[in-house]
Amino acid sequence: MSVSRPTLVLAPMRGVTTLYYRQAFVQHFAGLDCVMAPFIPTVSAERINPKLLKEVLPENNGDLPLIPQLISNNADDFVQMAVALADLGYDEVNLNMGCPHKPIRKKRRGSGLLPHPDLVEALLDPICARSPIKVSVKVRLGVADKSELLKLVPVLNRFPLSEIIVHPRTAEQMYDGSVDLDAFAEVVAALTLPVCYNGDIGSLAFYQNVQHRFPAIHRFMLGRGLLANPFLCEEIKGIDSSVEHIQRITAFHDDLVGRYEAVLHGDYSVLGKMKEFWIYQTRHLSNGSKMFKKLKKAQRLSTYKEIVCEFLSAAEWVRPV
Ligand SMILES: Cc1cc2nc3c(=O)[nH]c(=O)nc-3n(C[C@H](O)[C@H](O)[C@H](O)COP(=O)(O)O)c2cc1C
């Protein structure tokens, strides 16, 4: 049995794991080792500015190590952005080759690069030669065909990439169906680079299953499952808390809503963010689906807060299995 402690990374989720979410999360929950910020599309050097980099400015982020992520198919722009990130103090940048959204992949960015080993090689060659900081890559199994990533592996192996984060679904699956651990096993066997597992880790049992099957993997990225069960990293690391689950979720929620109220203008924007928050956070509440139905209809922040208060005071935590 492996005794080494895993490295647990918060997955980037654009619009959801915002800097405000990340700031609040680490105040209330332990066990994360690192966070990856949602992707920033690369732009040409003269258009790089603090507004574009706001999500990753060190003053907006705490002590937990952060890896910025870029989405790009332009090596020059990527390298210039990597230079800007190096100036901010970062020592690693991630290239998103997994985004499944059609408009992105049609432009051969995100997962749209996966079926094109020649394009990936032409992109990584100058990036790896000129980036002043380490480069890692986040991938899926392919667009429609699960063997695409396997065909890309010999290209990836040729570069000194610091890590390959694999989410074993195709882009066409989006987030549906299950992750393919057999396909993941084939990719792991073929890669000579360090691998991080990502996908569907939502309970201690699921994590242990992946960990037992792949004892050589020590890095795990957690997204939706951690958002639904924010205690998961603590459970994985065996960190105990004496404070009751619903009480901790309530404190986290109140903190987050306060942060959004301080920076967003008007009820509508804050409600938009908080409704997205509850898509995940209601999953393990005994009255979660009723609560979500009701709060989706709220038009005013005051009504929303009354609904949250009413439901949370009656909620019970349903342990994920
Ligand atoms: C709303 C949403 C936004 C996402 N944004 C990003 C992103 O900016 N960059 C990225 O690499 N992946 C993004 N992802 C994918 C997640 O990082 C992760 O790979 C995926 O959710 C699978 O992991 P999970 O099952 O632990 O959630 C996003 C996923 C969702 C649902």
Concise structural overview:
This protein has 321 residues and is an alpha/beta fold. The chain contains 13 helices and eight strands.
Notes on the protein architecture:
It is globular, with a radius of gyration of 20 Å. The chain has an eight-stranded parallel barrel with strand order 1-2-3-4-5-6-7-8. Strand 5, helix 5 (148-157) and strand 6 form a beta-alpha-beta unit. Helix 1 (19-28) packs antiparallel against helix 10 and helix 12 runs antiparallel to helix 13 (301-314). It is α/β, with parallel strands linked by helices. The chain is 44% helix and 15% strand. The protein has helices spanning 19-28, 75-87, 102-106, 117-130, 148-157, 181-190, 204-213, 224-228, 232-237, 245-263, 266-281, 288-296, 301-314, and strands spanning 7-10, 34-41, 66-71, 92-97, 134-142, 164-170, 195-198, 219-222. The chain folds into two domains: 7-237, TIM Barrel (Alpha-Beta Barrel), CATH 3.20.20.70; 245-314. The structure holds flavin mononucleotide. Residues 11-14, 16, 38-39, 69, 96, 98, 138, 167, 175, 198-201, 222-225 line the site of flavin mononucleotide. Flavin mononucleotide (FMN) binds at residues 11-14, 16, 38-39, 69, 96, 98, 138, 167, 175, 198-201, 222-225.
